[in-house]
Amino acid sequence: MSKLGIIINGLIKENPTFVLLLGMCPTLGTTSSAINGMSMGLATMAVLICSNFVISCIKNLIPDKVHIPCYIVVIAGFVTVVQLLIKAYAPAVDEKLGLFIPLIVVNCIVLGRAESFAAKNTPIDSACDGIGIGLGFTCALTLIGLCRELLGAGTAFGFAVYPEQFGALTFVLAPGAFITLGFLVAIFNKLTAKK
Amino acid sequence: MSYIIMIITAIFVNNIVLAQFLGICPFLGVSKKVDTAGWMGMAVLFVMLIATLVTYPIYYGLLVPYGLGFMQTIIYILVIAALVQMVEIILKKTMPALYSALGVFLPLITTNCTILGVAINVINFEYNLAESVVYSIATALGFTLAMILFAGIREQLAITDKPKAMEGTPIALITAGLLAMAFMGFSGVDKGLSTAFGL
Lengths: 195, 199
Fold this sequence. Notes:
The structure holds two protein chains of two kinds.
Chain A: H1 3-13, H2 24-29, H3 34-58, H4 67-89, H5 91-97, H6 108-118, H7 123-153, E1 155-156, E2 159-160, H8 174-194
Chain B: H1 2-13, H2 24-29, H3 34-63, H4 72-94, H5 96-102, H6 105-110, H7 113-124, H8 129-157, H9 169-184, H10 189-196
């Protein structure tokens, strides 16, 4: 498979949110606005690319019996790096995402890709897979955030589209997250079933 | 009194699944039957309590004095992974009945964000040890409650007719949304209680 093929595969065919349904906690928890969803997606993508690349480089050095703990340490290391960088350079993002940044460690997407892709492919291919899956995740989170923001607060990426008092606040709050994702997955199912 | 308010807040007002979005994977994954959902809840209660009891002294006894606070995420995930393995081995030897009941769920709990989330939260909220224990138990009870309620609804949902594209996860997510809406009715209860008891 070509490098571009791997990226597109992660973006559409194996979209982590709509097809694989992995990493639901940040998907629901951080998408109260498009910007929040996008920052979470980008943070996860950074961890994914680095961890995929490193794990693929060291896959032959790790004894098979302890490979999961080793992967987790690599992932936790990169999560800490990303966490400290966000705290230092984007404190506003850190405040919004809060607990969900350290929780990237237990995001099943990251460990899942390490196990199913990086452990079997070359470092460069694995990094491409990280980009593809990361982009798929970012796009999905931005889309969910955009829907919730538009329906709930009447804004898109912070710009007012219609007056706020006409928005249904529920969509910014917890129930809206579940309902929006439910409908988006249903639409995605419908579209892919036709082909 | 403040403990009772804390318990009510953690179970109903700030329910870990329906208001804080932690532990969604087991919430969607193992909620097809009421009794498995209940066992999963118990397994989480067990591990969450032990994990909090172990990570709390590690943070204040080891990481803070040596200025290693930034290592929190790495240390915690390793401790929790080791802990789950250990609990599994001990249970297998001492309580085989409980082990076979929880068996499948124990390894899953390592990657359950509720455990790591609660362990980090008690540090962020600056709770003392007693408060941390109460908080972790109450949070796990809230998780169990949400699991059992959701599983009950899903058992009924399985035998109904629904549009093809909605089958499986989409309808489950929308159901969870309605459940979250019901739990939103509790918002403000914690503040009301604090005022009522003059805290």
